[in-house]
Amino acid sequence: MPAQQLAGLTRAQAPRVRRFGHRRSHPRTLAQPYRIRRSCGGRPRGRDNGGVQVAVCGPAEATPEETAQARRVGELLAERGVTVLCGGGGGVMAAVAAGVRDRAGLVIGVRPDDGTAPALAELSASVVTNMGQARNAILVWSADAVIAVGGSWGTLSEVALAMRRGGIPVVVLGGWRVVDAHGAPVPGPVHAATPDAAVRLALGS
């Protein structure tokens, strides 16, 4: 509509113009983890760890011992006010999510699928990647520390990605150990004997 015609219209008569705001994008390097806004889910109880995000990895087909350990890890991290990231599946992932929710914490599932399958009820929110196992990289690069509970090929890939990334604590509770051709342990992640020790090592206190 021409400007001279617009000038003669009242506010109610004027056409509505939808304004699309331009969100300024800031460059982000892989060394800067992506953050989940905590305001949407509330602040977990316990000591505030300044928005620390810890990824807990483990097999979807877990033993009862691994499930119990993962649940305890989730409880301890939630008590410390940590945002917990997991793969959003069953086994260790479901157990750690349940532990976090038991302590009214925040747990985010970084899912490998397209989101058509129902999400775990224990999750505070889900990130649907539709990237298959490539989502392991997103999970690891979004974390300030990684705790692996139990062992599987998928878990091993997450530990390897975390070690390859460097600069963050990588803690293994049970599971597999990597050895060289002579059977000697390969230096890498720190091994913990208990869930309490794993959380202390991951958080540095």
UniProtKB/TrEMBL annotation:
GO terms for cellular component: cytosol. Coiled coil: none annotated. It comes from the Bacteria. This is Dethiobiotin synthetase. It comes from Micromonospora terminaliae. Pfam families: LDcluster4.
